[in-house]
Amino acid sequence: MSTDPLDPHFITAAPGELLRVDTRGRINVSQWADKGSNYLAHQQPDGTIVLRPAVVMTTASFTALTTRLSTGAAPAAEDTAAPPEPADP
Fold first, then answer.
1. CA-only gyration radius of the chain, Å
2. Integer Cα distance of 11 and 52 in angstroms
3. What does each C-alpha distance from 31 to 18, 57, 60, 70 come to in angstroms?
4. Which end of the chain has fewer CB atoms at under 10 Å, N or C?
5. pLDDT per residue over 25-65, tens digit each?
6. Is the whole model's pTM more than 0.70, yes or no?
7. Where are the domains of the chain?
């Protein structure tokens, strides 16, 4: 095997999978992400694109959560309620 990148028989491999950007500028990451997942993305100076999982919430939910955390208050009942028991047939 040649180590000269100009040689037509040169083969290189990088870890990971080759992804091709489609004509609309998209790539498919469905093999790694659940449908409906949210991510924050940024591009590093070397061109690497980094995706970090993100949680999206309303301003009201964020305010309620941070207020509870800052005051040390117990979570609201809806946050700790057990799922309902199934009804007997």
1. 24
2. 31
3. 13, 25, 33, 38
4. C
5. 998 888 888 888 899 999 999 988 899 999 999 999 999 98
6. no
7. 39-73
Contact between 50 and 44 under an 8 Å Cβ cutoff? The reply is yes
Q: Is the dihedral of CA 24, 30, 36, 37 positive or negative?
A: negative
Q: For residue 68, give the amino acid letter.
A: R
Number of alpha helices (DSSP H) and beta strands (DSSP E) in the chain: 2, 2
3-state secondary structure of 52: strand
Q: Give whole-number Cα distances, 21 to 18, 38, 47, 84, in Å.
A: 10, 19, 14, 45
Which one-letter amino acid corresponds to residue 12?
T
User: Residue holding tokens 């939910």?
Assistant: 61
| Six token digits for residue 75 | 């979570």
